[in-house]
Amino acid sequence: MGSARIPGQLLFHANKLLFGRNAWGTAASTCLVAKKSSTLAYQPDISPAEFGETTRMNLFQSLTSAMDIVLQDDPTSVVFGEDVAFGGVFRCTVGLKEKYGKDRVFNTPLSEQGIVGFGIGIAVAGATAVAEIQFADYIFPAFDQLVNEAAKYRYRSGDLFNVGKLTIRSPCGAVGHGGLYHSQMPESFFVHAPGLKVVIPRGPIQAKGLLLSCIRDQNPCIFLEPKILYRSAVEEVPVGDYVLPLGKAEVIMEGSDVTLLGWGTQVHVLRQVADLAHDKLNISCELIDLRTILPWDSATVIESVKKTGRLLVSHEAPITGGFGAEIASTIQEECFLHLEAPVQRVCGYDTPFPHVYEAFYLPDKWRCFEALKKMINY
Amino acid sequence: MTVCRDAFANQCALFQGLLGVLSVRNGSTEQTYDIKTPYKLHGLDEGPSTKATLSHDDALKMYREMTAIRRLETATSNLYKEKLIRGFCHLYSGQEAVAVGIFNTIKPEDGIITSYRAHGWTYLRSMSASCVMAELTGKSVGCSQGKGGSMHMFGDNFFGGNGIVGAQTSIGTGVAFAHKYLGTNNLCVALYGDGAANNGQVFESFNLSKLWDIPVLYVVENNLYGLGTSAERSSASTEYYKRGDYVPGIWMDAMDVLGVREVMRFACDYCRSGKGPIIVECVTYRYFGHSMSDPGTSYRTRDEIQEVRKTRDPITGFKELITTSGLVSADELKKIDGDVKKEMDAAAKVAKTGPAVELPSLYTHVYSTILPGMMIRGPDAYTYGSPK
């Protein structure tokens, strides 16, 4: 059996969680996948002191905290989606219905197009709508509403109306066993609709701040949450209200030889790649988390590539038409004379997300490392 | 008249009394039974027969099929707990009567399409438990060659297995349309659940099928819950058989496999006679949660589940009916139980030890053929293999 195992077992070690995403090169002929303990540490971020007192939270708890703050401060706000009332299939909305009542936190029937259309209506009428699409793979019936209605409302009405108060939250990304319809990363479908914002956090501190920003932003936002991090990413998250800026990438690690760019779960994979590069090749990598996919912070990336001369972009979504293509195109245009090697994109293959062989499909650290070596040796 | 738990308590009592009137013909090779729970009709002047005639052989066949599905799902849940099956696995236990009742009415050429709770149908249409279980564990001998998994199983004239809820109704309508214009006199059964009944494309399908008199049989498997949301909480009207408005509908208690068979006979005749679509709401129940990751007890009580198991289980009810009426002997059923157990054990073995999917499965069958010089693009320029 070739299905990849993403270790769900968490070994707590001080304040590190062991978390690994890579297959161990299981040969196609083995039937039973051996349980491997992790390969890497989930590096928790440290919360900036100015955000105040913190407490230990995982990703889904940090999201609950963000929604709790919104429901408390904004009396027009409502949270809805399939099965959110009992806490949600990923427990992101636990306790909210009990605290704020069933008129503000409620279940919808199974109709994604209806949920988003309904959310657009709420937003346009002036109330804050936080809609959940249970899995990002299910967002496509709502595609028309998002692209044709939400994205274009302000433009077509000459600013008389807008859908700024709408935020769509959805779990996304590979989880080890999701198969075709529980693993997709659809961000690149939406970046093609000017008027929307697309945001993907890498951990709890980022998620809470970015979600609060999205909800308060004056534009419709799609907030994609990497589902594999819901339980495994644990950090000391500020309990109070704080926001992180949209449209700004974050340089997590400074370096001088190669720029590594990713978002969501892939940032953690790239961190491992940076460590590998440092240990094996004595290469210093600069790691950037893009955070907001649309509108993306090209300035930060350009500045970094002008310094290092090499860019590796990595994302789970298939390579053709993936957001890496847009980044590569812009970088070659803006940094042509600074580039030491062609921009490398390490992404999922151009196939539907596989049921078996997920580990082979995903852009794991070894594939990224190979691409990095190619750039160094160019 | 929403279908609520009180109504079920009444029906439990009715069903318990379903021993029916026996009219013995030809010794004990055939019996006639009454369908006790009355049907409800919408847009129809007359409904299906309330009497079902069952032969000895058919009784054994239907018993075997239901028992096989029940056992298959139990074996699957065990494999899941052993972590040999991963991901999303939705079990059919409790709803067997729907699939078996329909299966014993339609022709092999009729199309079937359903939602993700598809193991029972895959088994019936392939008659191979190993084909189902091997697909779940991702073996190449699985029915989709290991590429689909639990929700994407297919078979002869069985169009899956669909993960996206509601999509199957539009597709099923299309399949039926193709049969109509190809003049095959076949129909398509499109099954969906109470959750899916609120999805937009279901209503689009109703309109298309009624407008063009498409021979599609919509079956709503109302198991009272859409994942964790009860039908009353998701639906403005829980009378799903009436939701088609201009499409006629029948409501029935689908824990009674003979009832399902009678109703489906009526419905199939209706479709095949060119009158267009019809909806059958099958009120049923699932014992497991929505999927293996859902314990199924946070939105309903264990008592409710136990109550249904005790008083309305389709297999136990059918077993009692055919043994106490003398149509079959208890020994014959016991033999079937033994055979089914052996079959499922063998299938589980194949699932555990069968040949794993080969690596080319990752990138084959994206398009129909491999175009010359085409590569499946990855960072290292992966290439299509040659087709076998």
Explain the overall architecture.
The complex is a heterodimer of chains A (378) and B (388). In chain A, strands 6-5-7-8-10-9-15 form a seven-stranded mixed sheet. Chain A contains 13 helices and 17 strands. By secondary structure, chain A is α/β, with parallel strands linked by helices. Chain A folds into two domains: 52-238, Thiamin diphosphate (ThDP)-binding fold, Pyr/PP domains (Rossmann fold, 3-Layer(aba) Sandwich); 250-376, Rossmann fold. In chain A, α1 (59-73) runs parallel beside α7, α9 (266-281) packs across α13 (365-376) and α10 (298-308) packs across α11. Chain B is α/β, with parallel strands linked by helices. Chain B folds into two domains: 2-357, Thiamin diphosphate (ThDP)-binding fold, Pyr/PP domains (Rossmann fold); 359-388, no CATH class. In chain B, strands 2-9-10-6-5-4 form a six-stranded mixed sheet, sandwiched between helices. In chain B, α2 crosses α4, α2 packs antiparallel against α11 and α6 runs parallel beside α7. Chain B is globular. Chains A and B meet through β17 and α13 of A and loops of B.
With strands numbered from the N-terminus, the spatial order across the biggest sheet of chain A is 6-5-7-8-10-9-15
Globular, elongated, flat, extended or rod-shaped: what is the shape of chain B? globular
Assign the structural class of chain A, choosing from mainly alpha, mainly beta, alpha/beta, alpha+beta, or little secondary structure. Answer: alpha/beta
Quaternary state of the chains: heterodimer
Percent range for β-strand residues of chain A: 15-25%
Number of domains of chain A: 2
Which CATH class of the largest domain in chain A applies here?
Alpha Beta
Radius of gyration of chain B, Cα only, in angstroms? 21 Å
* CATH fold-type name of the largest domain in chain A: Rossmann fold
Q: Order of helices and strands of chain A, N to C?
A: EEEEHEHEHEHHEHEHEHEEEHEEHEHEHH
Largest sheet of chain A: 7 strands, mixed
Mind summarizing the main beta sheet of chain B? 6 strands, mixed
Helix proportion of chain B? 40-55%
Average residue-wise pLDDT of chain B: 87
Beta-strand segment tally of chain A: 17
Q: Helix fraction of chain A? A: 25-40%
CATH 2nd-level architecture of the largest domain in chain B = 3-Layer(aba) Sandwich
- DSSP strand count of chain B: 10
The CATH homologous superfamily of the largest domain in chain A is called Thiamin diphosphate (ThDP)-binding fold, Pyr/PP domains
Low-confidence stretches of chain A: 1-40
How many angstroms does the end-to-end distance of chain A come to? 38 Å
